[in-house]
Every structure is written in structure tokens, then in C-alpha cells.
Amino acid sequence: MFEDKNQGRTSLSELGEFKLIEHLTQFFSLKKTTTIKGIGDDAAVLSASDKETVITTDLLVEGVHFDLSYMPLKHLGYKAVMVNLSDVYAMNADAEQITVSIAVSNRFTLEALEELYAGIQLACDTYNVDLIGGDTSSSTKGMLISVTAIGKANKEDIVYRDGAKPTDLIVVSGDLGGAYLGFQVLEREKQVFEVNPNNQPDLQGYTYVIERQLKPEARKDIPRLLKELDVKPTAMMDVSDGLSSELFHIATQSKVGCKIYEEKLPLDPQVISTCEEFNLDSTMVALSGGEDYELLFTISISDYDKIKGNPNLTVIGHITKENQGLQLITRANQEIALKAQGWNAFNK
Ligand code: ADP
Ligand code: MG
After folding, report:
1. Residues in contact with 180: Cβ distance below 8 Å, sequence separation at least 6, in sequence order
2. For the purposes of burial, counting CB atoms within 10 Å of the CB of 97, is it exposed (0-12), middle (13-18) or buried (19 or more)?
3. Ligand 1 atom with least separation from CA of 40
């Protein structure tokens, strides 16, 4: 009934809303013992446990948060789940369920939504979470996706943004700035394409930064690693808006200052080479880029030996007293006050 009868351009109006949801979600299976009832009734049912529940939502709007001219729908579905799981892991919790709500204009076909849900399903399978419901609506223009993620953690394991103390070390997972540069490369290729549609995009040499933009991975492994190392962060959050802005959140909520060191910022070699090509300062990109979905956290200095040398983790600085403010120590050993956000953060 929903076969590809028209070169993959089945109009959504050909099926009712119920058939559409049924079709899109038919291959999703329930994996979590805490999911009692998933899609199909008025509401999903989850079993209560002796753990705390964490819950988080993100709304993604076409033209504001994503551009379908270079974002394949499968990647969009995957990324929409990742940005939410990342927030759950940033609480030091494990994600268990998601809901997905979409609004789409009539320019989208059934096949397009199949792609979106293929990405959502890949994320659910890879990260072991259940899709338990959502809502479906038409929109007058473009696409909106809202994902809600639900997670669980022992009360004593949850990590907030307000627990950082002077002398704590500031640690970041993975590396920074890649997603922003992937965005720059994709924007450039889009403009080239708009001028000459016969021009094939040349994305060789940018695979890592493009993947950081189009297929980010939430750091599910980090809460697990920290547990294995017997380290409980004093504060934690994910890097969605950019390191600088996230440091401000931790500093404000914890009522502390910080010092971070330019030479310690973790950068992939491709981030450095792409910065050179685009004439961008790699430190600026690492501080203000955003969308890296790495975890930023603080630990007691007495835990340093437990994380020392771990290839997933980099110590980039330490927490200071509130009146010291937020400082970047440059390679030339100068102190510069960090700005919360913005590309021209240091330009007066
Ligand atoms: P209601 O009229 O109560 O809102 P719906 O027809 O919207 O019910 O939804 C029927 C079932 O399908 C519910 O379990 C709902 O959570 C689920 N659902 C609806 N839209 C989506 C979607 N886009 N993705 C996943 N599940 C959905
Ligand atoms: Mg509904």
C-alpha cells in the first residue's frame, strides 16, 4: 500500500495520520524493561523505579536549527535524538526513552519521513533507547521536530551545574570546534552550488569536521567511564553552544571563576588545517563553535590521578574563586577575560 509507486514521491495526504504513524514506527522495537507501553494508546506507560528520572526536550526548526539543502533527513533524525541524549548524559544519567513530535508541510513525502525515521531508529538502536510516542501535525511552512528524552540515575549520581569548587579541575571529552567548521564547509559548498549547480561539492579532506556537524554522537560512554574510574564530577554539562558559554553557565551557577589554558584546548588536526584555510583562529572556534556535544565537567583535584592520561579526557584548566572571573591564559601567557558568547568574543 505504501510502496514506492511514484518514484518515491508518495504524498502524505494519501494516508491518514494513523496509517502514517503506524508506517513510520513499524520497525521500532521496545528494549527497555522500564517501558510498559509504547506507541499506540493515549499515553505511554513507564514503570516507576527507585531511581530519579531526568527529562529534557529540544525543538528543532527548519531554517533556524537545520538546513535541508545539506542535511540529509536520515542525519537530521539521528541528530535530533543525539542532542537530547547528550543532555541526559550530561546529568550523569542513562537515557531510556524518547518521544518524537513532528510538524511537516505538504512539500514532504512519505519517503522523506521514512528517511527521517530511519535516522531516529538508528539512534534508538545504537543508544539502546525506546521510542514511546509523539505527535504528528501538518505545518504551513517547513519542518519542526521536537524530541523529549527520559533517563534514569541513582539520586547520588546525578550531576548538576552548580557543584564546581575552587581548585577543581576542568575537563572536556573528545575535541572541540569540529562541528562549527563542518558547518562552514557545508555553507561554502552550498554557495558554490547556488552559483553553479553543475559544480560537485568537494568535501575531500573535510570528512571529520563534516561528520561532526552532520552525525554527532552523544557521549554515552563518558558517564560509564567516569563510574569505572570511580570519579563523580562536581559539575557537568554538554557543549552545545560553545565551550565559553558553557563555562559561564557552570561559573554562574556554581558561583566560581575559572582559568583555562589555550595550549590545552583539544583540537583535531583537521580542525587546525581547516581553520588555517578559512583564516579562522582555532582557539576562537574551540571556544565559540558549539554543537560539538562533548561533555564538560569539573572534578576534585584529588581525582586527577584517576583520569590522568585517559585519551578521551583533557584537563583544560581549573576553577578559581568567583572574584577572579573567567580567564583564558594564552600561549604567550597573557590573561584574557572570556566572553560568554559570540564569534567576535574578543573583538572590542
Ligand atoms: P492522540 O490523538 O491521542 O494525540 P495520536 O494519533 O497523535 O494520538 O497518536 C497515536 C499514538 O502514536 C500515540 O501513542 C502517540 O504517542 C504516537 N505518535 C503520534 N505521532 C507520533 C510520531 N510522530 N512519532 C512517534 N509516535 C507518534
Ligand atoms: Mg496526537
Report:
1. 213, 285, 288, 289, 290, 291, 292
2. buried
3. 14
For 148-180, how does the pLDDT look when each residue is reduced to its tens digit (9 = 90+)?
999 999 999 999 999 999 999 999 999 999 999
Using 50, 70 and 90 to split pLDDT, how confident is the model at 15?
Answer: confident
DSSP-assigned letter for residue 71: S
| Pairwise CA distance, residues 109 & 113, whole Å | 7
Residue nearest to atom 22 of ligand 1 (CA): 134
- Residue where the block lists cell 560512554: 221
Q: How many CA atoms lie within 13 A of 266 on its CB side?
A: 20
What does each C-alpha distance from 346 to 22, 253, 258, 330, 342 come to in angstroms?
52, 23, 17, 12, 9
Q: Whose CA is nearest to atom 4 of ligand 1?
A: 135
Distances (CA, A) of 120 to 114, 147, 166, 182: 10, 10, 41, 21
327: its cell numbers: 580567564
Give the phi and the psi of residue 191 in degrees, each rounded to 5. -65, -40
Nearest ligand 1 atom to the CA of 25 is 25
Question: Ligand 1 atom 8: the closest Cα is on which residue?
Answer: 42
Adjacent-strand bridge partners of 94: 152
Q: Assess contact for 78 and 127: CB atoms under 8 A.
A: no
What domains are there in the chain, each with its CATH number? Answer: 12-157 (3.30.1330.10), 169-337 (3.90.650.10)
pTM beyond 0.85, yes or no:
yes
Residue 311, all three cell numbers: 585519551
**Centre of ligand 2 from the C-alpha of residue 71, in Å:** 27
Note the helical H segments in 128-234.
178-195, 207-214, 221-228
Instruction: State the Cα angle at 264 between 266 and 250, rounded to 5°.
Output: 85
Q: Which atom of ligand 1 is nearest to the CA of 43?
A: 14
